[in-house]
Amino acid sequence: MTSRRTALKWTAGLAAASLLPGAALRAAEPLKVGFVYVGPVGEAGWTFAHDLGRRALEAAFPGQVKTTFIESVPEGADAERVIRNLAQDGHRVIFTTSFGYMDATLKVARQYPKVVFQHATGFKTAANMGTYDVRTYEGAYLAGVLAGKTSKSGNLGVVGSHPIPEVIRNINAFTIGARSVNPKASTRVIWVNSWFDPGKERQAALTLIAQGADVLMQNTDSPAVLQAAQEKGVFAFGWDSDMTSFGPKAQLAASEIDWSVWYKKVVGEVLAGKFEPKQQVWYGLKEGAIDLGHLAASLPEDAKKLLAERRKGVLDGSRPVFQGPLRDQAGKEVVAAGQALADKDKLAMNYYVEGVQGTVPGGK
Amino acid sequence: MLRLEARPQASRLMTWLSPLLAAVLTLAAGGVLFALLGKDPAEGLRLFLIAPLKDLYGLSELLLKATPLMLCATGLAIGFRANIWNIGAEGQFMLGAVGATGIALWAGESESALVLPGMLLGGALAGAAWAAIPAWLKTRFNANEILVSLMLVYVAQLLVSWLVFGPWKDPQGFNFPQTVMFADAALLPVLVDGTRLHLGLLFALAALVAAYVFMYRSHAGFRMRVAGEAPDAARYAGFSARRTIWTGLLCGGAAAGLAGMAEVAGPMGQLTDKLSLGYGFAAIIVAFVGRLHPLGIFLASLLMALLYIGGEQVQQYMNLPNSIALVFQGLLLFFLLGADVFIRYRLRFGSEAAGA
């Protein structure tokens, strides 16, 4: 008897559950917003920065927004199921926060035309799907300025994740920043072929230090590079978020992303019923989505002053990061004097600029 | 006093009860885990094990996730039965994906019905070829196949990276590491409309049946089993150890290669460097939980797939970390190994004399 009653209750529960997406539309219900993360939230880095954005979003719309996040979702066939489950469960806005979710997001977006999809760092859009990204290269450039100012040997090192345009762009911007202070500075790169692999990141950092690098930057998600710098008495940066606690002596500054600028705008406009999903947004210093913060107390005044000047130059457009004359590694001019690189060329960047050593993996 | 006493012969009953016991203990420990995390254990287990199956889509996703596990584990079990320890199904899986992708890219926009069979063959052969390396090194130089097959996983990963960052990169893809999306003729047909469940499931089921026939109804399979259970007898009977090694590794490689093909021609529709989700390694657990028997592997791969998907569910609804799925997998293997003791031993109370 009991078991049958349970079964009946179950059926009723399922029937109610299937009505939920409709119910979520009522004004009294908070707007459900879903986030798909590529790594664990942790205490620093890419996914952590997205989670800070998520928390700021909830705080900005108390009672109006309810967020859900799923972490460590692999960028492969599994992502589609996770994204679809969020849409099926009544989430009206879904942020997928890594490049590898692009095609999965697009497929689910086609199945759920009423849901708004926002994919970070990709390039495919649909009527209900847009992309958003942050000009991390502006942070990398400012970090480069400090690196050029701080480095005694002029040997800089970067631990890279995957040789995709975004990361190559950051390495180039870092090098341009450094060479704007010290024209002899040069950058070595070690690729770890992973976004998050503290063991490999640390090994790469130690190798760069052994080769004479005295300021490091990383385009990976863990604080391992900063920790290695701290141990060996050289300098490094926080990446995507502040990492002071992992290397208080080593961190010169942190290139910090504030995803909440875009998250709040999207959700605010969705709540007001006027959001246009099909956009390709690339926010930077100007919008307050990236900045070099948490400057080390040990930085000399002239370094801080120089940094403030360069920051202003990027902000008011008087000194863009990729301004001519700019030459690639082979000495070929890629930007003529008086010109600046267009966004579409930044997005497809697959060459190193002058001052970076080695070759781009898979490049020509 | 509690003590273990050796059974006169291995218990057939316990051989099959042990995985069930392990599953029950995993559930119990999982419940305790939920309680310790401050969540309702009943709700947690319901989300983990029942909620993923609430509708047709959920079921289809379970079968989709189980397909590569089933294929890899089936092939591995043939070798494991003969004490051939192929740990590199993950690499053979990737090579299978590479072989199939090679054919798909070569065929381009061709609408020929031969594209898919070609990819199937290409995937299986590439997987088998990757497994042939440890087989050759083992038979020629007596190199340990565990180490060789494992190390080749990393080589395979780098090969995939090189291909998608280099010669196979989508020219329209902004230099991102992925190939073009395959043409329709290079995609496996979907079995149930509105889901992602594809023809690969039928490959997996066919492989299970073929493995059963091979292991239990053929002389070659008999030789493999004897080689595993009584190596001396196999040698005395003049069964070729060399042939056993080759068969074990090639079967494992071909099945894993087929799984890799089904992944790129199925849910992915392209090759990327994010191809590998550890199916080749998880399949080792599946093969053992399934007692190296096709029927057992079928059930174990469903259970394993459920643990993966359940992990996503508890994250979505209970806000628990993703690692919980891995904890469940670990618990399952741990309890299985523990319960397996009772296949050869039994529990006795009292001293040895009293027990006799």
Structure description:
The complex is a heterodimer of chains A (364) and B (356). With 364 residues, chain A is α/β, with parallel strands linked by helices. Chain A folds into 2 domains: 17-134, Response regulator (Rossmann fold, 3-Layer(aba) Sandwich), CATH 3.40.50; 137-256 and 291-347, Response regulator (Rossmann fold, 3-Layer(aba) Sandwich). Chain A contains 11 helices and 14 strands. Chain A has helices at 2-23, 46-60, 77-88, 102-111, 136-150, 165-179, 198-210, 224-232, 260-271, 301-315, 343-347; strands at residues 31-36, 65-70, 93-96, 116-120, 129-134, 155-160, 186-191, 215-218, 236-240, 251-257, 280-283, 290-293, 326-327, 333-335. In chain A, the strands form 4 sheets. A 6-stranded parallel sheet of chain A has the order 2-1-3-4-5-11, sandwiched between helices. In chain A, helix 4 (102-111) links the parallel strand 3 and strand 4. In chain A, helix 5 (136-150) runs antiparallel to helix 10. The relative contact order of chain A is 0.13. The model of chain A is unreliable at 1-26 (pLDDT under 50). Chain B is mainly α and 356 residues long. Chain B folds into 2 domains: 1-39 and 325-356, no CATH class; 67-282, no CATH class. Chain B is 71% helix and 3% strand. In chain B, strands 1-2 form a two-stranded antiparallel sheet. In chain B, helix 4 (89-107) packs across helix 10. The longest helix of chain B is centred in the last third of the chain and has 28 residues, at 241-268. The chains are: A alpha/beta (364), B mainly alpha (356). Chain A: InterPro entries: ABC-Purine-Binding, PnrA-like, TAT_signal. Chain A: It holds the Pfam family Bmp.
